[in-house]
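Quick sanity check, D-alanine--poly(Phosphoribitol) ligase subunit 1:
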Amino acid sequence: MLIEKINAWAELCPERIAHRHREQMLTYARLKTSSDSLATWLYDAGERGEIRRGTPIVVYGHKESEMLTCFIGCVKAGFPYIPVDSATPPERVRQIIEVSGAWLVLSPQRVPQEMVQAEMMIVDGLVVDREGNLRSAEGDILSELPFPITERHVQGRKSGTVPTCIQPKNASQEPSLLASVPTCIQEDEVYYIIYTSGSTGVPKGVQITLRALESFLGWVNPAFQPEAGNEVFLNQAPFSFDLSVMDLYMSLSMGGTLWSVDKDQIANPKELFTSFHSSGISYWVSTPSFAEVCLMDPSFTDTLLPLVKRFLFCGEILTHDCASKLIQRFPRARVENLYGPTEATVAVTTLTITSEILSAFNPLPVGGVKPDALVLICDTDELSAGIVAGGGSLPNRPEALPEGKQGEMIIAGPNVSVGYLNNPEQTEKAFFSWQESGVTWLAYRTGDAGMVKQGLLFYQGRLDFQVKLHGYRIELGEIEENLRQIPMIENAVVLPIERRGKIDYLQAFITGDKPIGDEFATVLALREELRQHLPEYMIPRRFKFLDKMPMTQNGKVDRRALLGGSS
């Protein structure tokens, strides 16, 4: 089990650094002690019937080591966690809290007052001390504090479980207690929930079970061969972005060190490269866009990062040019191109990009599928008809299209999410199942276009209005819906603008209920309004004001016509 592996590293190498962010360092011993402290506090509250096991907990922050403590502590006590980055606008955080039903926010930072809801319990300013105790902002050891009770928290029943990965206070008096109860989050229980953009304007909470996470780790660790207890993994992505699951849990499960760089370092290339120079990074995990930015500096070579063994890319398209430059500058490292949506636990396919692959393919393939999963290219209309007729299930495995024909990419296997939290309507649209040889296969409709050529899988963009930009999955409809809420705007369409075969930025096309005055001032005002509801990566770079939207013959907005006039 994952948590047992992490605990084992605390016993085997207690002083090894589990996480480093700037000058902050967290050893495996302190990670275990501090997460046990949090788990004990949560467990005791559950025993008193104040909280229900399995209720999600929001963990709010950026790259602090206490984020890891909160993740592991929640799971040890039987609670899935929802990572929320502190760069997320307060309005979006409130939405996540509301739709998830979360009642508790844990944070190493001070939580902004405008984010706090009525009867929401906030425990912020958390710090891991030198002894490994998790302390509140007032300096108290968390596990020794009383659990505040409000009407919202009381669930009317006890949790009924004791996590055996922590040591209950009364274990010495009741030695039989630990032998008869389950441990932490169980295999088929939800381990974490990551919120992604939703087409209706409401974020969707993707629920990933422990089984799915361990399926992912059981594939990537043997495939990419990190040396146990001897690797440093780059953490570039925020913990609220599922790419970070790869570096975080590959590192912790293998006794590695997670080296986090924060948004301020990323914005300052000189500071960023100074950090790289002293990092000893051996496994680079990032979006391709981040690597492309680094490659703009000629010093980004194996002289700067002499220990890098592998570049692991996921979240967006790895371009031919980016892969080619990396192979030239880091001749001893391998470049791995992975593919997978959040709903399939980070990634489900991979391919090592070699000089031979570069010579044969442009765009690049995304490789072969992990052994316990399937990726099928299916006819979208036929699949939809079959699922509707079967009430959300199929009698058999869906028929795959022949090689060379484009269709919708379907992912099935133990790595697939159990659905969106508290959102049965969207879950029914995206997930289905079938029986095969007595086994139930859970499948996810990605909405991605794909094709198999020469035995290799190719990603060919989106079938709907969802895009990936700089590794972030964005529902264009969510941006449009937020624009339409602004009083001066009558209608809005947001489209991705491509350059050199990949999305470069987003452009908003707007019609108003009255003539636009000063366009520059209007754009500034629109951006400021959007920042109250959306993260920065969802703010369109350009705005175009129109007298009216071009329409197709069937009365829909002619998006092709808009793109024709966007340059």
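Posting the structure with no commentary besides this: Residues 150-163, 167-182 have pLDDT under 50 and may be disordered.
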